[in-house]
């Protein structure tokens, strides 16, 4: 049994359960004296263990919320993606530290957090950013509870403002074709980059990380395994967003375009006096470094502005792929796999606008199949 049971003489027993370490590293225990038989004391100890597991007892801790944030961020740096940590490190000192940093954890209440969120939102901060603040508060206070610094997190019942999801409005086929033509005319390499994103639905960083060893032009297949990720000016090659690789089929036009692109790369490499490596990046600078995702976004922005297509983002090419595939009757499972969503529900939630037309087509198809029945003839 967990916990410690000590006979103190007569019918007195001392029971205690380990709580964890305090902010200064000392071990903390929840203790009490009970009376009765040994069996009674064992039952009392079992109840105390349950109380501790439910978080009803915590080590007395003078830790402030600012100190908690520092320790929590240390844990996060070793367990989550650098770009996620970067957002937390930007949020914590800018919005949370100045307002809650000196507050003792034991003194924080749900009403304090609700007031904080209301203040941030009223100051002009978007609901989405306030909700990221809430994520930092909630996760850090939950860590404090696991560390036995508090018995219960006040963030459990806190209510940040609701964030309205941006309605997905993919560009039309005509707009995408116009963008691709204009990009290719200005720079075939960038035109090929946009074509690949439009034909496969890959993310911008995934396209920047593609290597020729990821592509089998004879079989018409492309493997998406990695992504280029930015932290400030630093570039890193990491797993895809969902930490899953995927293989997508390529159409004949895309294969032909990629063959031309590889031929141009080989000619450029030879002109510089060095052959093109088998594992060379599809989209690289003269020095061989990958294209920066933010530079691709900026180039797309200038291209879009020149065509008068304000409001169309580079990421909308991905929405375009999903929407036209769903409209074309392609199964949601196939679309989800092609986009690299970790769950099919993500695809369903993002592209519900495209589903009614497909569902109507399904209804019409079923109606056609059942049209020969007597019931159908009677209904007409």
Overview of this structure, please?
It is a single chain. The protein has a 3-stranded antiparallel sheet, covered by helices on one side. The relative contact order is 0.08. It has 3 domains: 50 residues, no CATH class; 82 residues, Tyrosine recombinase, N-terminal domain (DNA polymerase, domain 1), CATH 1.10.150.130; 141 residues, Intergrase catalytic core (hpI Integrase, Chain A). It is α+β, with helices and mostly antiparallel strands and 380 residues long. Helices cover 52% and strands 12% of the residues. It starts with a strand and ends with a helix.
List keywords for this structure.
380 residues, alpha+beta, DNA polymerase, domain 1, hpI Integrase, Chain A, 3 domains, 3-stranded antiparallel beta sheet, 15 helices, 8 strands, 52% helix, elongated
């Amino acid at each position: 049994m967990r916990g410690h049971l000590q006979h103190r003489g007569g019918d007195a027993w001392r029971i205690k359960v380990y709580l964890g370490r305090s902010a200064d590293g000392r071990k903390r225990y929840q203790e009490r004296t009970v009376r009765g038989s040994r069996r009674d004391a064992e039952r009392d100890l079992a109840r105390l263990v349950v109380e501790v597991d439910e978080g009803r007892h915590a080590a007395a801790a003078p830790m402030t919320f600012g100190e908690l944030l520092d320790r929590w961020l240390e844990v996060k740096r070793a367990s989550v993606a650098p770009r996620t940590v970067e957002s937390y490190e930007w949020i914590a000192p800018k919005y949370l530290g100045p307002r809650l940093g000196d507050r003792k954890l034991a003194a924080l209440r749900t009403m304090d957090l609700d007031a904080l969120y209301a203040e941030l939102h009223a100051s002009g901060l978007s609901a989405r950013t306030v909700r990221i603040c809430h994520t930092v508060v909630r996760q850090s206070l939950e860590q404090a509870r696991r560390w036995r610094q508090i018995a219960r997190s006040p963030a459990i019942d806190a209510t940040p403002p609701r964030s309205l999801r941006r309605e997905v409005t993919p560009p039309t086929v005509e707009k995408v074709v116009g963008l691709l033509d204009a990009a290719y005319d200005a720079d075939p390499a960038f035109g090929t980059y946009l074509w690949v994103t439009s034909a496969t639905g890959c993310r911008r960083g995934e396209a920047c990380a593609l290597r020729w060893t990821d592509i089998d032009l004879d079989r018409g297949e492309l493997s998406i395994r990695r992504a280029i990720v930015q932290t400030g000016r630093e570039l890193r090659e990491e797993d895809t967003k969902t930490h899953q690789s995927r293989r997508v089929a390529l159409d004949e036009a895309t294969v032909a375009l990629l063959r031309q692109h590889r031929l141009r790369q080989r000619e450029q490499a030879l002109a510089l006096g060095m052959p093109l490596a088998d594992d060379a990046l599809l989209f690289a600078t003269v020095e061989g470094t990958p294209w920066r995702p933010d530079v691709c976004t900026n180039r797309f922005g200038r291209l879009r502005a020149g065509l008068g297509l304000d409001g169309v983002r580079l990421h909308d090419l991905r929405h375009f792929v999903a929407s036209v595939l769903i409209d074309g009757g392609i199964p949601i499972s196939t679309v989800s796999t092609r986009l690299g969503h970790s769950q099919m529900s993500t695809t369903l939630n993002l592209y519900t606008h495209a589903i009614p037309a497909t569902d109507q087509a399904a209804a019409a198809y079923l109606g056609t199949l059942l049209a020969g029945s007597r019931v159908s003839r009677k209904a007409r």
